[in-house]
Amino acid sequence: MASKDETFRTPAAQGGPLDLLVVGGGINGTGIARDAAGRGASVLLVEQDDLANHTSSASTKLIHGGLRYLEYYEFRLVREALIERERLLHIAPHIIWPMRFVLPYTPQARPAWMLRLGLFLYDHLAPNMTLPKCKSLDFRTNSAGKPLNGTLARGFAYSDGWVQDSRLVVLNAMDARAHGADIRTRTRLVQARRVNGLWEAVIENTRDGSQTTVRAKVLVNAGGPWVSEVLRKRAQVDSDKNVRLVKGSHIVVPRLFDGPQAYILQNPDKRIVFAIPYEQKFTLIGTTDVPWTQAPGRVEISPEEISYLCESVSRYFTRPVTPDDVVWSYAGVRPLYDDAAKNASAVTRDYVLDVDTQGNQAPMLSIFGGKITTYRKLAEHALEKLQPFLPVLSAPGWTADQVLPGGDLGDGGFDGAVSRLAAKAPFLDAQLCWRLVRNYGSRAVEIVGDARSMADMGEQFGGGLTAREVEYLIAHEWAQTTEDILWRRSRMGLHVTDEDAGRLDSYLRGRQPVAAKSVS
């Protein structure tokens, strides 16, 4: 399944300097690559692991303004995030959708007047809000109170958005590639130095150890938790900016409540925890805020965090949650800008963009902080800072209203797209048809192709995952491993057995040389 998107038009193939070398395949790196490539810049993005391998797939998966940030007077950040929430709902309606949040009132946490004021501001900081505004709830009569214990009489409801976070990263990378960017996963920056007005960088394919030297006019450090390492160790650049690492962990348990609503729960320590419907059969619970002083990389939830999250929801729901209920957990390290806050929960979620030229030398832009909701605006701000060095970036911004791949759902929106796929492929069961559109939007038809039966979809790996979908992910979305496919592209890891995963692993090993070639 060769992709028309896989033709690269960067000068690197001819030995000329790139406009931008972007280090980091998370949401900020792919967002910048997309915007820059669409303005005509030549872009190479390198990611040492898989796209969204770390922080960008370990979020609470919300597109939100951040209601609690109002408590820290982050009004600009909240307003920007609320405006971006509306834009993202428009440009990626297949992987982002509205969600209603229920906030139970507990006088021990925050006074009712503070909650009402915060919710009023939340509804009015952003112009042209299309989602339903907040309202008061009586849990004695409203169905949202049914899962809650009898000590809670009232609360509030407000609107925000849900996102399939790792898919948002992949779609930005796909659109960057469609505009000419070269996206290389399993490729790390070994070192970079300034030579004759350019960055000269050594990059390494982590699969075979081969190294290549590339030249670029600008280096963009979107390394996330590795931003300081890229800055100081790999590029040998001094900076007075620092990143503060905070580990956030989540647990997934069997579904705690019926209905599409989520819950935002206030704890006695003033932190908040979300309980969110997840993958039809589960509830996602998170997050924690734990200072992280070790090296970034693969992290795991601690027993103390599991207990904290279980206690948080058990405090509110009729049905208690215990560590034995946890079917899956994940953790990530958030690279927040170090603003010297004492409490990890109070560290700003705003971003800082730092441009270093060291006396009119080749510029390096480093990104500190940020949140997934504001990634697109962050990319615009980053390119504004780089325009004096790269005139090509002076082209108008274009990403605010251009849908991401698969987002052109057509008449009837999401439901209409599901109906059309069901008519094209009546052999798909309703759940599989829904899932394909929810993951791939209008591009679900490319996965089905000319299939006329489930047998035509190829080998089955459980939960409706077929060889056709796997091949699509390999050819179009840089997937290489079982983990890539089950946890970052499809989230089918929750729905397949260990035996299913083993068969998928065998399938991929049998065709691995082809997979590696398709994304090199």
Morphology call: globular
What is the CATH architecture term of the largest domain? 3-Layer(bba) Sandwich
CATH top level label of the largest domain: Alpha Beta
Q: What's the main sheet like?
A: 10 strands, mixed
CATH homologous superfamily descriptor of the largest domain: FAD/NAD(P)-binding domain
Based on CA atoms alone, the radius of gyration comes out at 23 Å
Number of helices: 14
Characterization of the model:
Residues 19-341 form the FAD dependent oxidoreductase domain. InterPro entries: DAO_C (IPR031656), DAO_C_sf (IPR038299), FAD-dep_OxRdtase (IPR006076), FAD/NAD-bd_sf (IPR036188), G3P_DH_FAD-dep (IPR000447). By secondary structure, the chain is an alpha+beta fold. It folds into three domains: 15-54 and 167-242 and 348-393, FAD/NAD(P)-binding domain; 98-162 and 244-337, D-Amino Acid Oxidase, subunit A, domain 2 (D-Amino Acid Oxidase, Chain A, domain 2, 2-Layer Sandwich), CATH 3.30.9; 413-510, Alpha-glycerophosphate oxidase, cap domain (Helicase, Ruva Protein, domain 3). Helix content is 30%, strand content 23%. It has 14 helices and 18 strands. The chain has helices at residues 27-38, 75-91, 112-124, 165-178, 227-234, 303-314, 375-386, 413-424, 430-440, 444-448, 467-477, 482-489, 498-510, 512-518, and strands spanning 18-23, 43-46, 62-63, 96-104, 135-138, 154-163, 182-184, 187-195, 198-205, 211-221, 243-254, 262-266, 272-278, 282-286, 290-291, 328-337, 351-356, 364-369. The strands form two sheets. Strands 3, 4, 5, 6, 11, 12, 13, 14, 15 and 16 form a ten-stranded mixed sheet that branches. A hairpin with a 3-residue loop joins strand 13 (272-278) and strand 14. Helix 1 (27-38) runs parallel beside helix 4 (165-178), helix 1 crosses helix 7 and helix 8 packs across helix 9. It is globular. The two termini are 15 Å apart. Residues 1-10 and 513-520 have low confidence and may be disordered.
